[in-house]
Amino acid sequence: QAQAFSLGFTPDRLERASMATLCMAPLDHFRDTEEQPRTPTRTSRSWAACPHAQEQLKQQLRAAIPRTEWVEIEEMDMESRADVEDWLRQSPAGVLLKVEVVSWAFEGLRLLDQQRLVQTALHDELASGAIDALPQLKTLTPEQWHRRESKRRLRGFEDRLRAAIGNVEHLEIADLTDGHAIQGFFDGSRRSLDPNGLELRVTVVSSTFEGMRPLARQQLVQDALGPEITSGEIHALPHLRTWTPAQWSAKAALLDAHTSGCAKL
Predict the structure, then answer these.
(1) What is the distance between the alpha carbons of residues 96 and 17, in angstroms, rounded to a whole number?
(2) Angle between helices 142-165 and 214-224 (to 10 degrees)
(3) How confident is the model at residue 258, as a pLDDT?
(4) What is the pTM for the complete model shown?
(5) Which end is more exposed in the chain, N or C (fewer Cβ atoms within 10 Å of the end residue's Cβ)?
(6) Helix 111-121 to helix 51-64 angle, to the nearest 10 degrees?
(7) Start-to-end Cα distance in the chain
(8) Strand 95-103 vs strand 198-206: parallel, antiparallel, or unpaired?
(9) Residue 234: exposed, middle, or buried by beta-carbon count in 10 A (0-12, 13-18, 19+)?
(10) Alpha-carbon torsion (87, 91, 93, 98), positive or negative
């Protein structure tokens, strides 16, 4: 602390930016970098890498923004900035943070107002220079977050199915989750292993299915998603369709004929 005071820190600033000065970063970050130039590297560690500092920032955000469901904080990779050397000379102690906050308080607010809530919560760190900027600030309502995570998970399932089955010409996965997993988890029946388990409608069209029985085709799909089925992350595949390209074309032709008939009526 004596060394920090000699560098111009007040007790108030030390309290606000203690994680920046004392957690992970050496105090020479606050000295004139022209005397001791630093070369940024991907492995350089700053105060933002300290779990205690990150937790303190998360607590500040939760205290300032009511009904916060989730907070994620990560320091940006310095090599992702083309002007990183100039930035280090101008603000040697500050960091760039990726911040994501999910809160019910964002409901009905404009994006600018949502982000202002976060910036206000971190005002002291931004004002002191401990945080240089929040260039990747994301603010989401819980509904937006769940939609995004659902799409992300479904994309992961799609990649696994394409890799496991091969020759996939068409693949469609829809989330039909309606609360059955929650009921089956809490009613004591053990019909569900995870209250957040997904119910998915899966349609796979692949030439790999040629000559295979329907049960064997479905087993290929289930094996590809085995870890999630076993853990309960996937509760059920109630509408699993495994078709060859010829079957898919026949189904499409039948649907077109039905649609045309309805249009004439």
Answers:
(1) 15
(2) 120
(3) 54
(4) 0.54
(5) C
(6) 120
(7) 84
(8) unpaired
(9) buried
(10) negative
Three-state secondary-structure class, residue 190: coil
3-state helix, strand, coil in the chain (%, to 5): 50, 20, 25
Q: Is residue 117 a contact partner of residue 105, using CB atoms and an 8 Å limit?
A: yes
Residue given tokens 């069209």 in the structure block: 205
Residues paired with residue 100 on neighbouring β-strands, in sequence order:
72, 138
Backbone φ, ψ for residue 55 (5° rounding) = -65, -35
Q: Is 15 helix (H, G, I), strand (E, B) or coil?
A: helix
Residues paired with 180 in a beta bridge: none
3-state secondary structure of 96: strand
Residues 146-168 pLDDT 10s: 888 888 888 989 999 999 999 99
Residue 17 backbone dihedrals phi, psi, to 5 degrees: -115, 25
CA-wise closest residue to 105 among 135, 56, 59, 68: 68
CB-based contacts of 221, cutoff 8 Å, min separation 6: 161, 165, 202, 204, 237, 240, 242
For 81, the 3-state DSSP assignment is: coil
Residue 115 confidence class, pLDDT cut points 50, 70, 90? very high
Q: Residue 159 has which token pair?
A: 């990649």
Give the pLDDT score at 86: 53
Please answer whether residues 150 and 140 qualify as being in contact, where contact means their C-beta atoms are separated by less than 8 angstroms: no
